[in-house]
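--- STAGE predict ---
source: upstream dedup step, 1 unique chain passed
mode: sequence only
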Amino acid sequence: THCISSAASDVYKRQVHKIADGGMASIYLATSIGPGGFEKPCAIKRIRPEYSASSEFRDMLVREAKVAALLNHPNIVQVFDFGEVDGEYFLTMEWVDGAPLNRILRQASSHGQPLGLGPVLALASNLARAVEYLASGVIVDGMPTLLVHRDISPSNVLISTTGAIKLTDFGIVKVLEAPQGTAAGVIKGKYAYMSPEQLKGEKLDSRSDVFSLGVVLYEVLTRK
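--- STAGE serialize ---
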């Protein structure tokens, strides 16, 4: 399969290597094709038709995809492209050849083997850098925009076969707290990892992400 553009709907329809299904999107492994036989793996997040059909969701998705594309950090999965084919929206993202942290934790638990202090420290420092980067703000339309991930959890932490640690799940509706972002009282994320303020639907800042990161690290250390 090939990474897609708005002019390649026939290629888009041939996306058959599905990796995962989520509540609002499906993820596919694909290949970016370039001149001279250039090929590079990538991931495509295809938004479900029922969400693509909503004008309110489309407006939110366009803004948040725009912000996600501006993120440039070694510990954050990059978004390369955003487009629409036959009324369905998609994101093209960096492919991380590895596994999510939740799967690694399940495997470690089934074998009765903890991750070890070294890997846990590496996980903590790399994810903390990603959270710090989001809290520092990204310039959007000439204005600094503070970002709050709101869904830092083991399923959104990818660890590559070479040991790279990357935070993912940017570009849909959980990416930011900013003007025209999620309204007060709307709760998004996974309850077990949310800060008390997030559970109450209150306005958030980066401290909520720090809380969620702490919960993840507690789980990694205690396997509870």
